[in-house]
């Protein structure tokens, strides 16, 4: 009884709610559903409890729905949950056929059992929260970080599960087409993390997308939200909103996303949920449920079928006793836009207001504009939203620039740009309304430029930023490399990672694979491809028909399937040129129509060389790019013979203007690589009208189909499109870039706009490309939905010869059927009538209930109205497959038997096939800035002109010579300038003896100005150099004079002057200078580890003994005359002096041994960067950077300082022994020279400069020291110059003979007066 009362209340409330809703919007629906947990079925790999659950559910249905509520329209809702153990089987690779069949058997039993009772089923699997899916993703991420998981045949984990799901949906629909099966996911708002869950969402998206692609009837994709903390209502809805905000990846689905939110609070505001769905371009519906006992009311709001901006939404208040619905109208968005046109002199010449169509995503009534039109007439065009108060002071300005060759692509439509910008401005404005914040509103300025060399606002120019500094731009693939080289572009890697977070799939995986080589530079994405250009073949079918029998011609593929790629059945370049000769023989006209405008020769040649196995551009180990081969000789001329014959025999038309050729022939042939001419080309129109007066080709041509369409349409006439010969087509296009400039502060907004442009669910990408897109997962809507016109459809049916049509079904089998044709008349379009019962059974809603289907030509496919469309030699027929509306493409057997046996020969299909084999010119290299030089200098024109036209000075030149010249031209012009190249590679000549220099021969750049270094200093001083010769002479003089001095010292060893200094000390000092002089020789010639060791050892030993000798002498004098140590006068012990000298040398030798051990290879090679040169290999002795070396020289410095201090101390002793003035001068000079050597060797690694410094300093040091302490004494002896003395030298043995006398004498006071006479022993 209670149940009946509750049910009655609900039915009354249902009527009440329904009335309210219909008052506002009839498309909002109110339904009541019944669900019991006993009808929730858990599907396990092994059937254990299913039969028991079925019995319980049967009881519920029979007792509640049938007996108690008979006649009431209450929908029963069933739930099927696929156990996570299924994924466990998949993860462990035990998901065999028996497991698969067992699961399907259980579900079949369920659906059969309730086929007339339960019409709605939710199939859930908890894929989002499943542990095994998480493990799979972690495993994949370990191999390739954040790699997208692609659902394809190679995916052995998820593909079996996808097949299971597909089978479930097919079974349900086969039992009853009215049965609705939803795919259900539960989302725990407390634990879901988008960063981690994005890959799971991507898998889910791919599953649903693939089901739809295979026409599997899936009704809804449901997300049911739940949270453990039911009390925190606000936080629950905030998390739900965040989840919905990140579902951009589902924008490619054509079914609604259903969000189930339990209604356990008193207030719901779903307006911003709708707004977020709208912004993300996804179809959303929300179900709010309020449970009373076992009954649930489901109030569903949807906006995806309504005009978004006029939609009534949005909150629903509920309690146990009362259900009311309240609606309010959203703040409307201003859909009018002000577009201002500025003249070349930057004056606003016109402003117009245009409304925006939210359905078509286009501005209404905006005039057609092309790039050329904008470039020639306007400096800029701005677009902003119309404001009622005309207050535009707070607008933020973004600048968008299109850099394009207007002579090549100027006629392309540009309206899509403004359509996209208007949508983005609208979205930003809506965000401002939704957030009720002071967010920016935008004005976007569009400019078109034709000069790739124009300077862009660059960083560090903030103070002088112009108003039109572009934030982002559309650049050709060549321009991208140029601007990247100039550091104008921002790396997009950061934004591509962000794209992955938003859409669950990497942008790289979507981009056509060969686009990588144009847009990915130096391991970073510098641009996002947007447009794509390829080349196709065109051929005259009339000519082929005429010559088919006499010359054995066949239509090129795909128009004829006999091209099987074997032996003589290859459609390659040899066959292409062979057909050219045959057509010329048959028609007496050129077999190939050849175009030269916009560097078509370059694209033609790149396709040819890549197909015959020659890379157009290669790169050697030095990163030097060159044509075809590293070798100087041409070893591939044989592969050019076919091309040469075609050019030489004039089997193609002339493409250069006669006046330009005559001027070239009359001038001398250039002998400078920079002085080759540029030819004036004939336009495409001139070439096409040469033979017949109207645009046509006689035989074949290779061209850009987008340009040829204006002359020949889509290939429905005698000129048809086909596959290019060989293995490669040309790939080019444009891509979006963001500028790396401090003048632009809107890089994030720029990428938002780029994302909008490339969104495949919006029309902009498709409007910018005629037939194909640069994204592998995106078919161009122009091809998918192209309708030539109703008239063409009428013409096709009116003129049809055969009434037999065909298509290929899912099993890859030909289905052939007949259809009647009813011609068009004044009142009706042509009709196609199908009476074939097989087709009616398969593809109509009522099967046998009808005996014919009558379709009418129209503008768009419509199943309800039975409208067909004609496009590219095919008819698109609306059908019903498994309850889902779909389109079947059929073709007439007229085409089938005469051409290609069911092969699509539409331009869309051909361009798509050509895209698959299209490669950039520089493939397999990435884009580089000098590629444009080949195009700008028209280098291919020179090669072709030399063969086709022949210069007066170069008649009958061998092909090898032509190719060698061509290679030289390319190699030279693509070689970058050394002044612009930071990482130069070069080789060095042998060291020139006279100049100590090596010539620099650059291998990866060319000298273009005076700042480029052409020579560099050698790593050593050659033996034959003047420095070495002078060094030999001076050291020879030093050694000669030293030997003479040694002889004289021995001869005059008893001389008073010599004795005053000391004979032993003189000899030691002289030997020290000999050692130091010897060290100089090791700074000449090429270095080695041995010479390095000799350098440090000899200079250390020589300097140490030179300084120590003077120091020890001064110390002895000081001890006698200052310390009053008289005993040293009469008991001279040179042994003490030798011991001290030995200790000093021992210390240095120990340090030298340690140095030699720790630096066993002191001769090192390093790469050092030199401005205007690059990295050069430097070879030098690394003997001054060691701490041991520092200690060695510090020890020598300390001895010099000590010697200086003693010299100052003994400055007043008898002048015979007082050489302090010499020592002070000598020591100071020693400090300066040694410090200078040490300093120079530290600051430079150039061995030449180090050697010159060392040689000069050491020779000066020797030259300064020896004359003071040795040669001057000898000079006095030889010249018998008398030195005034206050000291008398006597024989000590006759004067003092006992220790007592010695002791007594030691107490004698010495008087330092001129009159005093002191008899002493020679102290040295």
Automatic annotation (TrEMBL):
One of its GO terms (cellular component) is membrane. Residues 1027-1251 form the G-protein coupled receptors family 3 profile domain. The chain crosses the membrane at residues 1026-1049, 1061-1084, 1096-1112, 1137-1157, 1188-1210, 1222-1243, 1249-1269. Pfam families: 7tm_3. One of its GO terms (molecular function) is G protein-coupled receptor activity. It is found in: Membrane. Its main location: membrane. This is G-protein coupled receptors family 3 profile domain-containing protein. It comes from Piromyces finnis.
């Amino acid at each position: 009884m209670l149940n009946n009362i509750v049910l009655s209340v609900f039915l009354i409330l249902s009527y009440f709610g329904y009335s309210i809703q219909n008052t506002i919007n009839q498309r909002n629906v109110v339904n009541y559903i019944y669900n019991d947990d006993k009808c929730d079925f858990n599907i396990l790999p092994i059937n254990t409890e299913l039969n028991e659950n079925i019995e319980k559910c049967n009881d519920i249905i029979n007792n509640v729905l049938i007996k108690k509520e008979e006649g009431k329209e209450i929908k029963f809702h069933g739930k099927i949950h696929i156990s996570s153990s299924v994924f466990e089987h998949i993860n462990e690779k035990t998901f065999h056929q028996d497991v698969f069949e067992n699961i399907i058997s259980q579900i079949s039993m369920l659906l059969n059992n309730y086929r007339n009772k339960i019409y709605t089923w939710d199939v859930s699997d908890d894929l989002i929260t499943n542990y095994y899916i998480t493990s799979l993703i972690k495993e994949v991420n370990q191999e390739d970080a954040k790699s997208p998981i692609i659902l394809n045949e190679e995916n052995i984990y998820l593909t079996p599960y996808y097949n299971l799901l597909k089978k479930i949906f097919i079974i349900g629909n086969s039992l009853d087409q009215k049965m609705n099966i939803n795919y259900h996911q539960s989302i725990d708002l407390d634990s879901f993390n988008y960063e981690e869950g994005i890959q799971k969402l991507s898998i889910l998206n791919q599953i649903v997308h693939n089901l739809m692609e295979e026409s599997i009837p899936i009704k809804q994709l449901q997300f049911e939200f739940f949270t453990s903390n039911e009390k925190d209502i606000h936080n629950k809805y905030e998390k739900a909103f965040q989840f919905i905000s990140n579902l951009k990846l589902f924008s490619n689905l054509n079914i609604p996303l259903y969000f189930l939110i339990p209604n356990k609070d008193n207030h719901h505001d779903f307006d911003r949920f709708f707004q977020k769905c709208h912004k993300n371009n996804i179809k959303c519906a929300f179900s709010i449920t309020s449970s009373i006992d076992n009954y649930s009311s489901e109030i569903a709001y949807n906006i995806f079928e309504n005009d978004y901006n006029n939609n009534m939404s949005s909150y629903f208040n509920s309690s146990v006793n009362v259900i009311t619905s309240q609606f309010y109208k959203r703040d409307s968005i201003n859909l009018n836009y002000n577009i201002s046109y500025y003249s070349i002199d930057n004056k606003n010449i016109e402003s117009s207001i245009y409304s925006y169509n939210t359905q078509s995503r286009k501005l209404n009534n905006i005039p057609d504009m092309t790039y050329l039109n904008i470039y020639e007439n306007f400096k800029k065009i701005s677009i902003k939203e119309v404001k009622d108060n005309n207050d535009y002071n707070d607008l933020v300005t973004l600048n968008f620039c299109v850099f394009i060759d207007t002579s090549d692509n100027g006629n392309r439509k540009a309206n899509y740009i403004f359509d996209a910008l208007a949508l983005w401005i609208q979205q930003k404005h809506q965000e401002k309304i939704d957030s009720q914040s002071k967010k920016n509103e935008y004005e976007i300025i569009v400019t078109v430029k034709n000069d790739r060399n124009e300077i862009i606002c660059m960083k560090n120019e903030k103070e002088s930023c112009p108003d039109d500094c572009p934030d982002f731009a559309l650049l050709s693939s060549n321009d991208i490399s140029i601007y990247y080289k100039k550091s104008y572009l921002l790396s997009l890697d950061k934004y591509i990672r962000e794209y992955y977070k938003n859409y669950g799939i990497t942008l790289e995986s979507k981009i056509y694979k060969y686009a990588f080589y144009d847009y990915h530079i130096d391991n970073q994405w510098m641009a996002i491809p947007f447009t794509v250009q390829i080349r196709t073949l065109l051929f005259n079918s009339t000519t082929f028909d005429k010559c088919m029998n006499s010359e054995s011609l066949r239509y090129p593929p795909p128009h004829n399937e006999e091209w099987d790629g074997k032996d003589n059945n290859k459609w390659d370049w040899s066959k292409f040129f062979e057909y050219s000769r045959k057509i010329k023989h048959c028609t007496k006209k050129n077999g190939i129509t050849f175009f030269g405008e916009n560097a078509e020769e370059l694209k033609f040649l790149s396709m040819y060389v890549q197909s015959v196995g020659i890379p157009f551009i290669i790169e050697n180990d030095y990163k030097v790019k060159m044509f075809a081969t590293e070798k100087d000789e041409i070893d591939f001329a044989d592969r050019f013979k076919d091309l040469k014959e075609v050019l030489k025999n004039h089997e193609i038309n002339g493409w250069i203007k006669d006046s330009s050729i005559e001027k070239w022939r009359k001038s001398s042939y250039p002998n400078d690589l920079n002085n080759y001419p540029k030819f004036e080309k004939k336009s495409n129109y001139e070439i096409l009208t040469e033979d017949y007066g109207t645009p046509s080709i006689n035989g074949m041509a290779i061209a850009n189909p987008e340009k040829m369409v204006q002359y020949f349409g889509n290939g429905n006439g005698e000129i048809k499109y086909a596959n290019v010969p060989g293995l490669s087509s040309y790939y080019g296009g444009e891509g979006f870039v963001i500028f790396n400039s401090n003048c632009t502060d809107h890089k994030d907004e720029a990428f938002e706009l780029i994302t909008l442009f490339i969104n495949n669910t919006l029309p902009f990408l498709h409007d910018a490309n005629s037939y194909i897109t640069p994204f592998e997962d995106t078919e161009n809507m122009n091809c998918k939905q192209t309708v030539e016109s109703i008239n063409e459809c009428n013409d096709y049916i009116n003129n049809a010869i055969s009434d037999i049509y065909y298509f290929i079904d899912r099993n890859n089998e030909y289905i052939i059927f007949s259809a009647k044709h009813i011609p068009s008349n004044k009142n009706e379009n042509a009709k196609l009538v199908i009476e074939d019962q097989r087709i009616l059974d398969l593809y109509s809603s009522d099967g046998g209930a009808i005996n014919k289907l009558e379709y009418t030509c129209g503008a768009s496919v419509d199943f309800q109205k039975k409208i067909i469309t004609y496009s590219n030699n095919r008819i698109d027929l609306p059908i019903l497959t498994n309850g889902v509306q779909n389109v079947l493409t059929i073709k007439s057997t007229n085409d089938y038997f005469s051409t290609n046996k069911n092969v699509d020969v539409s331009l869309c299909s051909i361009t798509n096939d050509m895209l698959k084999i299209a490669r950039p010119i520089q493939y397999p290299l990435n884009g580089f800035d000098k590629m444009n030089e080949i195009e700008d200098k028209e280098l291919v024109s020179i090669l072709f002109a030399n063969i086709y036209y022949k210069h007066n000075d170069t008649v009958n030149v061998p092909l090898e010579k032509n190719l060698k010249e061509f290679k030289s031209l390319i190699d030279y012009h693509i070689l970058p300038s050394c002044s612009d190249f930071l990482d130069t590679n070069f080789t060095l000549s042998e060291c020139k003896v006279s100049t100590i220099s090596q010539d620099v021969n650059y291998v990866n750049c060319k000298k273009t100005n005076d700042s480029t270094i052409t020579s560099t200093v050698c790593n050593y001083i050659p033996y034959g150099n003047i420095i070495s010769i002078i060094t030999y002479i001076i050291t020879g003089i030093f050694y000669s004079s030293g030997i003479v001095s040694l002889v004289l010292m021995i001869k005059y060893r008893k001389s008073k002057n010599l004795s005053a200094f000391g004979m032993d000390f003189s000899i030691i000092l002289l030997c020290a200078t000999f050692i130091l002089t010897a060290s100089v020789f090791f700074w000449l010639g090429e270095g080695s580890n041995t010479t390095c060791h000799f350098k440090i050892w000899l200079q250390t030993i020589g300097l140490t003994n030179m300084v120590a000798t003077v120091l020890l002498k001064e110390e002895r004098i000081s001890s006698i005359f200052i310390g009053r140590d008289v005993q040293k006068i009469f008991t001279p012990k040179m042994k003490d002096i030798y011991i001290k000298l030995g200790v000093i040398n021992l210390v240095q030798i120990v340090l030298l041994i340690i140095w030699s051990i720790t630096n066993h290879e002191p001769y090192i090679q390093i790469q050092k960067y030199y401005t205007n040169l690059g990295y050069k290999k430097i070879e030098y002795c690394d003997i001054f950077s060691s701490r041991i070396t520092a200690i060695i020289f510090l020890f020598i410095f300390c001895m010099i300082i000590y010697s200086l201090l003693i010299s100052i101390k003994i400055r007043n002793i008898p002048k015979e022994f007082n050489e302090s003035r010499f020592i002070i001068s000598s020591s100071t000079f020693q400090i300066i020279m040694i410090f200078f050597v040490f300093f120079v060797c530290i600051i430079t690694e150039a061995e030449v400069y180090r050697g010159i410094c060392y040689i000069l300093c050491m020779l000066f040091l020797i030259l300064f020291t020896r004359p003071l302490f040795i040669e001057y004494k000898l000079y006095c002896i030889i010249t018998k110059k008398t030195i005034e003395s206050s000291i008398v030298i006597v024989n000590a043995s006759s004067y003092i003979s006992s220790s007592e006398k010695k002791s007594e004498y030691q107490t004698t006071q010495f008087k330092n007066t001129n009159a005093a006479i002191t008899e002493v022993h020679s102290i040295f």
